[in-house]
Amino acid sequence: MNKNIIAVAVGALGFVLGLGFLGNAIKNRNKSENTISVTGLGTKQFTSDLITWSGSFSKNNSDLKSAYDELAIDRKVINDYLVSKGIKQSEIVFSSVDIQKQFRSYNDANGNYVQGEFSGYNLTQKVSIESKEVVKIENLSRNITEIINRGIEFTSSAPSYFYTKLATVKQEMIASATKDAKERAEKIAENSGSSLGNLKKATMGVIQITEPNSNEDYSYGGTFNTSSKEKEANITIKLEYEVN
């Protein structure tokens, strides 16, 4: 008899606890559904304040030392030209010399590629400039044919543009996106006859930097345009509020 009484008591207790858990689950479910999720956008346009530019030049000679000497002459001409255009010597960086052996190659009667005898050396060196004088370096990169006209085999790359105060821009956009999201949430709550409660969750998206009014695609890891001097940055903030 005692065992039966204990079994019934345990069963009853389990039933009561089960009802309690079920009640809490329903309460928590309703509470989680009684929320508003909104996404705010922060946008900022700015002009790059740092530019990098580079170019390369090369020499070919069957004798390695002669190739080095010829390349050194071209390097001095390029350096002097850049300094004459107002570029600081500290901003001019020459890379190490890349040396490539060249061979005469041909296809045999069966069409197979054959590497023939050694024909000489190709020496290439790169010059780079990093400066905050954006307009000056822009003009330099556009008029680099003056170096070519001096008999130097020179290849110029397109400039790359950067912004050194990006951290400040990001903070401003986060504040703007958060304000935008909160205003959207308040409007939704007001239209539904409710009011915002506590902020439950905030999620920040990645920063996207593109050329203004362009059709550049956003990427999952963030886009960072370096080809345009003028830039537009965007960031999203997702906020989730309780609703009273």
Automatic annotation (TrEMBL):
Entries under InterPro entries matching the protein: 26kDa_periplasmic_antigen, SIMPL/DUF541, UCP029033
Domain of life the protein comes from: Bacteria
Chain ranges passing through the membrane: none
Single GO BP term: DNA damage response
Pfam families: SIMPL
PANTHER family for this protein: SLR1258 PROTEIN
Protein name as annotated: SIMPL domain-containing protein
Organism name: Chryseobacterium kwangjuense
Classification of source organism: Bacteria, Pseudomonadati, Bacteroidota, Flavobacteriia, Flavobacteriales
